[in-house]
Design a protein that fits this description.
33% helix, globular
Length: 108
């Protein structure tokens, strides 16, 4: 069953939102600046893998500049972080869509 959590990264003043699959692998990630909520990351593992397989280095670089990079590891690794907690699928989806609208379309 998928899981959605948010974690506050105090060192970077970022709210990080993670979607994970049944195995806990991060599948989508959003990061919002803590002071004003501006999206800085909205990356998808599916998109990253697709671009890595089908695109050149320049296309992948443009994707990373626009959407950032997705965290490696498992959701469970982040559950013990400060101010971590589960969120609903609906809340994650709303945050995801807002971040993607702000950062641009899915094609780099």
């Amino acid at each position: 069953m998928p899981v959605w959590i948010r974690v506050y990264d105090e060192d970077r003043d970022l709210w990080q939102y993670f979607e994970g699959d049944e195995a806990g692998q991060v599948t989508r990630q959003v990061e919002l600046r803590g002071d004003d909520g501006t999206p800085v990351t909205a990356a998808s593992l599916e998109e990253v893998l697709r671009f890595q397989e089908c695109s050149d280095v320049d296309t992948m670089s443009r994707y990373q500049r626009r959407y950032g990079t997705i965290a490696e590891g498992r959701i469970t690794d982040r559950n013990g972080a400060g101010r971590a907690g589960e969120i609903s699928a609906e809340e994650f989806e709303r945050i995801w869509l807002d971040a993607r609208r702000t950062l641009g379309s899915a094609t780099p």
